[in-house]
Amino acid sequence: MSGQGVVPGPDGLLRCPWGLEAETMADYRVYHDTEWGRPVHGDDALYERICLEAFQSGLSWLTILRRREGFRAAFADFSIAKVAEFTEADEQRLIADPGIIRNRAKIAATISNARAAAALAPGELDELIWSHAPAPDGRPVPRTATDVAAITAESTALSRDLKKRGFRFVGPTTAYALMQACGLVNDHLADCHSRDVV
């Protein structure tokens, strides 16, 4: 992200600068306006976000966003119960699937993470993740992109707790991106039109 504050979109609404990157405006704008930062609950829904954030590591979020339906098709709509049953043959199928990012380590982690999630009680993954949400009034409201953290004490603790339960590709930066995307924190900039609707 650049260090700038909100920028006006083609509709005149002020947005976080990443939501209006020139080449990717439509994709990011819709994601920014309708999804990013809004609360996500449910074990399968949060498992999907953990997986997508892990696949994003080292890549642009747009790369993942544009393949999201391919990921959903490849990973049984991110059903924890179904992916936990994937076999070596499924892993080979996924490595050959052009609809996803064909990274062997990330594919293996996605399957392993389903097994870790399946070992938890129903609702426990949701409860675990949301237990790391900071108090909303305890954080300064970011005014520019440079005010937005990449790692926090809460994301470090979430990463540690997920790893203790066998999750992989969930470092503190990935955990913080998960927290931002799933509404545990509100990192829309102070003057962004989406800040007050999440």
From TrEMBL:
Its EC number is 3.2.2.20. Coiled coil: none annotated. InterPro entries: Adenine_glyco, DNA-3mA_glycosylase, DNA_glycosylase, Tag. The keyword Kinase does not apply. Keywords: Glycosidase, Hydrolase, Metal-binding, Zinc. One of its GO terms (molecular function) is DNA-3-methyladenine glycosylase activity. Zn(2+) binds at residues 16, 32, 188, 192. It holds the Pfam family Adenine_glyco. NCBIfam families: tag (TIGR00624). This is DNA-3-methyladenine glycosylase I.
